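Lay summary. Proteins are chains of building blocks that fold into shapes, and those shapes determine what they do. In this project we predict the shape from the chain. Here is one chain we studied, written as its sequence of building blocks.
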Amino acid sequence: MWNRGSLVAAAVLAGAFLTSAAEAQQWLPVGTKVDIYGCVGRSLNYLCPIITDRRTGLFYTIIQADPQPDPAKKLVVHLTGTIESYITFCWSGPVLDNIKWNYTRLRCPRPK
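And here is the predicted shape, written in a compact code that computers can read:
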């Protein structure tokens, strides 16, 4: 017999799965060209460089950028690239390839 605690736990788990599926659907298809103004940082597991789009808030993995933008400069980066289907160990957004970037004069906001 189900008790109230089991029903709440099941509802929370279902919500978590649905939220993850909704977030995954926001990713753009492979081959899409992106033009981003954002701040660079590290992925959730601190293993990979990422950029966060200032307009949409989406994360993109930029391990293919050569050279890598330096997060310590705290400057907004203008970056263009193409979404690829690489599999990585990063806990972040889609991987970009064919990356071109440059620093802007804008400053990145302080982390909260």
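What the prediction tells us: The chain is about 20% helix and 35% strand.
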